[in-house]
Amino acid sequence: MKKLLLLVFIVIMTTAFGQEKMKIVAGSLGVLKDQTEVNVEVKFENVLFMKENITETQYLENRKKQVLENPKRGEEAWKKWIEEWEKYKNEYYADYFAKGLNKTYKNILFKKDTSAKYTLLVETNWVFPGWHAGLTAMTAEITGKIKLVETNSPSAVLAEIELKKFDKFAPNPEFVMEYGRIAAAYESVGRYLGKEIKKSLK
């Protein structure tokens, strides 16, 4: 029941603030017609965080302080948290993005580290990690760009999609954690992009 209430609350929140958060601003996704496999990549470099636009270093310093000051957590909890943060940032975000794409568009296999002709590259500029407080929560938000490029020539940009505080909800067992909510946002980005690809390739 608690999970159902949380899901309903999040859906209401994302619907209430719904607007065009994903927009094709250049080129076309039509080049993906007849492709059977597409590479995916997520860049998470020099990202700014929160409404204050702090750096990742500053964000992590603040997060560490919060964890260490919590008497129920401490050094071991922080060690586990930062390990998971690095894993998600360097590995899992791309997996979640691909998962979302594969969920809504079945005619192409999207996966990372493949030699496919084309790559969907997510360049992340800004992140709000959201929050979780029992029965209520706010989804993470992502601002950045998705570029469709030639894998062997990344400067050849065939399409560009703008993400503006993208915050659509996707369920995630790690949603209570910051990195889990961000992962859910990447999966949701993939789901919505998969729908755009489907429309473009009709």
Architecture overview:
The chain is of the alpha/beta class. Helices cover 41% and strands 31% of the residues. The protein is built from 4 helices and 10 strands. It has helices at residues 2-16, 56-69, 75-104, 178-200, and strands at residues 22-27, 37-43, 48-49, 54-55, 109-112, 118-128, 131-133, 136-138, 141-150, 153-166. The strands form 2 sheets. Strands 1, 2, 3, 4, 5, 6, 9 and 10 form an 8-stranded mixed sheet that branches. Helix 2 packs across helix 3 (75-104) and helix 3 packs parallel to helix 4 (178-200). It is elongated and about 55 Å long. Residues 1-18 have low confidence and may be disordered.
How much helical structure, as a percent, in the residues?
40-55%
Query: Can you write the helix and strand succession as a string?
Result: HEEEEHHEEEEEEH
Largest sheet: 8 strands, mixed
Which regions have little confidence, pLDDT < 50, spanning 5+ residues?
1-18
Number of helices: 4
